Amino acid sequence: MQSLESDVDVLVVGAGITGIYQLYRAREAGFSARLLEAGGGVGGTWYWNRYPGARFDSESYTYAYLFSRELFDEWEWQEHFAEQPETERYLNHVVDRFDLRRDMRFDAKVASAVYDEATGRWTVTTADGAEYRTRFFIAATGVLSVPYFPDVPGRDQFAGESLHTGLWPATPLDFAGKRVAVIGTGSSGVQLIPVIAGEVASLTVYQRSANWCTPLNNRPITPEEQAQLRADFEAIRETLNTSVSGFLHPVHDRATFDDSREARLAFFEKMWNSPGFSKLTSNYTDLLLDPAANAEWCEFIAAKIRSIVKDPATAAKLIPDHRFAEKRPPFVNGYYEAYNNPNVSLVDLKQTPIIRMNEHGIETSEGEREFDIVVWATGFDFGTGALRRMGIRGRHGLALTDYWADGPKTFLGVQTAGFPNCFFPGGPHAAAGNNPRYNGDQVDFITDTLVYVRDHGYDTIEVDAAAEAQWTNMIDTVAALPPSFGESSYFFGANIPGKARRYLLNSAGRPKLFKEIARVRGNEYQAFKLSRSV
Ligand code: NA7
């Protein structure tokens, strides 16, 4: 076991993009700080999701850190949308460049975190029995960090290799000549499928819901673009720091039916060829507001699917029955084309559901297929999954799991009442869009808050229940309005049986987050209870 001081000012959990930044900021602000990470290395999402084809669908330089001009200048992203290995290398580079590794402990999964009212300290225990005491406990455990396996009868009986995209092994898997099943066609499944399709003996895709997949349109960053990125650093930072969704994409100024059908189709073609999320952020202004507008764009994509996929029956199964952005849209490279490969077949689980698994493979209502490898691309317990599994207990032994039984209650997505000195940047309720941008806003706010607490001689800070109720009600109210993701999406917890159906993002976005943070700063933290005696 690595030896670290066990009594610190700040204990961060999670060495993903948010936790790394939190450790950096806490140390920079003069706190003694440590970080515990369940994985064997740095990266969080980019450590665990190392399946073939895993990559950003936010532009690399908009996802990465912006706090250091030197860091921005010295790291040359190879592609507009970097693949997992490059991102993992980048995050390791950051950790080493800022000498953060000495305060990190890996293979340290937090089993419990308990607040002691007598001392105002948190006691954090890892699965291997190590114990830490900290004044501030900061869980940067991510929203997509607890993989979800559906409860399929016989799942454990399968004798072949069984893998989840979110728990991918570090040793590369040999797909050559194997009979492979992929269950799930969210962002992970549709990234993996085209990469392995040409390699395997057979690939069977088990699809419950089709998704509106559009091209990522990735490409290498040219030397000229590298130079331009550096020249534009301040402008890029300004745009990203003020953009609602945290992207560089310009917002369009026209609504769908402002244009003739011909002009519309030309615009949709331009969208189809545009990078990543710009299909959402730069599309017609009414795309998410007017069902008829949304249907026009969907019809355009459906025609693309029919034109790419040669077998009409397969093409029909690949056309979703929900509106665009009802669920989180994936961005792909060669996904629909993969179905033209004679060794790739699609099973529509709405027509022929999975009945059970056995040692050989998967049985649906249509019959059994045998496999060497089954890949679960079945998603995550989004937003609250990790926080609810860490044994967090606040005042009077209150378990976070119980307090959040009907869904999370937060203020600014950073704190919850009854859990003094506990923060969770990058958790539920912050904003929506390009995650690292608003998670970084939260880290900045939390760090400034800790400095305020320290410099004013306080011992504890705890959000007021009324402020928490107000923020949480705002989340719920705004979530009911367009253009939120729909209630069938994992953003409402819909993918996990028995999970409370509450909105887990913040549709009012970063503007609301910024406004509230400014208000808190302006009125000396009135939304919080600050205490000198513990
Ligand atoms: P997602 O987007 O949650 O996708 C999970 C997929 O697994 C989706 O197609 C689900 O179908 C499917 N699924 C879930 N449960 C089942 C069962 N029981 N049977 C069959 N299929 C099932 O997770 P991803 O990992 O792809 O992406 C997560 C995020 O990572 C993504 O949004 C990006 O931010 C990166 P469903 O749609 O629920 O019918």
Summarize the structure.
With 534 residues, the protein is of the alpha/beta class. The chain is 31% helix and 16% strand. The chain has 17 helices and 20 strands.
Q: Can you offer a commentary on this structure?
A:
- By secondary structure, this protein is α/β, with parallel strands linked by helices.
- The chain is 31% helix and 16% strand.
- It is built from 17 helices and 20 strands.
- Strands 1, 2, 3, 4, 5, 6, 17 and 18 form an 8-stranded mixed beta sheet that branches.
- A hairpin with a 4-residue loop joins strand 5 (121-126) and strand 6 (131-139).
- Helix 1 packs parallel to helix 15 (435-455).
- It is globular.
- The model has no long low-confidence stretch (mean pLDDT 96).
- Bound molecules: ligand NA7.
- The site of ligand NA7 has 21 residues, from helix 6.
Write the topology of this structure.
Blueprint: E1 7-13, H1 17-28, E2 33-36, H2 45-48, H3 60-63, H4 69-74, H5 84-97, E3 104-105, E4 110-116, E5 121-126, E6 131-139, E7 161-164, E8 179-183, H6 187-197, E9 202-207, E10 214-215, H7 223-231, H8 233-242, H9 261-272, H10 278-281, H11 291-308, H12 312-317, E11 331-332, H13 335-338, E12 344-348, E13 354-357, E14 361-364, E15 367-370, E16 373-376, E17 392-393, H14 400-403, E18 422-423, H15 435-455, E19 460-463, H16 465-479, H17 509-522, E20 528-531
Helix pairs in contact: 1-15
Bound molecules: ligand NA7.
Label this structure with key terms.
about 525 residues; alpha/beta; eight-stranded mixed β-sheet; 20 strands; globular; binds ligand NA7
Report the C-alpha radius of gyration, rounded: 23 Å
Assembly context of the chains: single chain
- N-to-C span: 32 Å
Q: Give the uncertain stretches in residue-range form.
A: none
Secondary structure tally: strands:
20
Question: What portion of residues is helical?
Answer: 25-40%
Portion in beta strands: 15-25%
Bound molecules: ligand NA7
Bulk shape: globular
Largest sheet: number of strands, sense, barrel closure = 8 strands, mixed
Strand pairing plus helix content: what structural class? alpha/beta
Task: Summarize model confidence as the mean pLDDT.
Answer: 96
**Contiguous helical run count:** 17
